[in-house]
């Protein structure tokens, strides 16, 4: 309904003001990405794209900018819910909870269960207390992950392209990318997907990590080379993983599905009534401001520059 409302507002705007604003939630499976080819067939009066999501890798911002189309997303609104799922996956991965949960539902108490032709039983997990959580991408979601993890007694380190101001570090320690890989007991991916971050974690990066590291990803699946992750899990380099996002959604790398040491959720990071409401309101507020003043509240940072 929120997408339809946004589209309807866009149509009214086009009729009255000779410009058009649209929301790009859920359109991807019907239209494909909002790339240069898509922009060529959209109305020439298009001036604003208001995207219902924090990540906007499905929108070619450079092509939009070239056509003087302003793009907004929904940061901040998604922070709490996504961080909550990140912590859920982290705890589940540390405790390797998939095995006992599956065994219980199969009437086998703590096991065994069969996966990938092997039998698995419930094993001892690990506490988060005292572990180093490395956050790759200390934006709003990363900071909320840090705040929550500190309550579990974790030590927080992070890496960004640039160091944050002290008031935004929420007590976390800034380290280099290689230091983050080497120091982290748990590595959480919380950065946007673009050409420079695609497969930022791959075979080379896994070799730099601690043996038995835990990987958590609630950002974008393509940040990880999933085949390299499967290999690292099979070798024991990565002890377990908690994943909410995947490179080729809704398809998931078979080696991840068959591995009971991996906690999987189907991209539910923002899947709460409260968060969806906040996101939808922000989309509509962006549309309203675009119509009234020709501005956007949360224009993407590439265009602000």
UniProtKB/TrEMBL annotation:
Domain of life: Eukaryota
Segment forming the signal sequence: none
Family per similarity comment: Belongs to the D-isomer specific 2-hydroxyacid dehydrogenase family.
Entry annotated with the keyword Cytoplasm: no
Oxidoreductase keyword on record: yes
Sections of the chain in a coiled coil: none
Protein name according to UniProt: D-isomer specific 2-hydroxyacid dehydrogenase NAD-binding domain-containing protein
GO terms for cellular component: cytosol
Pfam name, any one: 2-Hacid_dh
Residues annotated as domain D-isomer specific 2-hydroxyacid dehydrogenase catalytic: 25-300
Molecular function (Gene Ontology), one example: glyoxylate reductase (NADPH) activity
Organism (species): Penicillium concentricum
Domain called D-isomer specific 2-hydroxyacid dehydrogenase NAD-binding: residue spans: 88-269
Keywords: NAD, Oxidoreductase
């Amino acid at each position: 309904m929120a997408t339809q409302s946004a589209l309807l507002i866009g149509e009214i705007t086009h009729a009255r003001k000779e410009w058009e604003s649209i929301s790009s939630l859920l359109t991807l499976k019907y239209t494909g990405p909002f790339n240069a080819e898509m922009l060529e067939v959209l109305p020439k009066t298009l001036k604003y794209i208001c995207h219902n999501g924090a990540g906007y890798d499905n929108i070619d911002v450079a092509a939009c900018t070239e056509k003087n189309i302003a793009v907004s997303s929904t940061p901040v609104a998604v922070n709490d819910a996504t961080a909550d799922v990140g912590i859920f996956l982290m705890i589940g991965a540390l405790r390797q909870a998939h095995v006992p949960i599956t065994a219980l539902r199969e009437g086998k108490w703590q096991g065994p269960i069969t996966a990938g032709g092997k039998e698995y039983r419930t094993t001892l997990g690990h506490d988060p207390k005292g572990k180093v959580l490395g956050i790759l991408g200390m934006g709003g979601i990363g900071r909320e992950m840090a705040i929550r993890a500190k309550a579990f007694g974790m030590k927080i380190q992070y890496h960004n392209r640039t160091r944050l101001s002290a008031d935004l570090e929420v007590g976390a320690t800034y380290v280099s990318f290689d230091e983050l890989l080497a120091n982290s007991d748990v590595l959480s991916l919380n950065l946007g997907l673009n050409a420079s971050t695609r497969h930022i974690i791959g075979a080379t990066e896994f070799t730099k990590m601690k043996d038995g590291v835990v990987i958590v990803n609630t950002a974008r699946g393509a940040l990880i080379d999933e085949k390299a992750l499967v290999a690292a899990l099979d070798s024991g380099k990565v002890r377990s993983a908690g994943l909410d996002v995947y490179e080729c959604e809704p398809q998931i790398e078979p080696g991840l599905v068959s591995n009971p040491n991996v906690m999987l959720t189907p991209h539910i990071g923002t899947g709460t009534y409260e968060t969806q409401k906040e996101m939808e309101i922000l989309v509509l507020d962006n549309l309203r401001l675009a119509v009234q003043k020709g501005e956007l509240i949360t224009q993407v940072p590439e265009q602000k520059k």
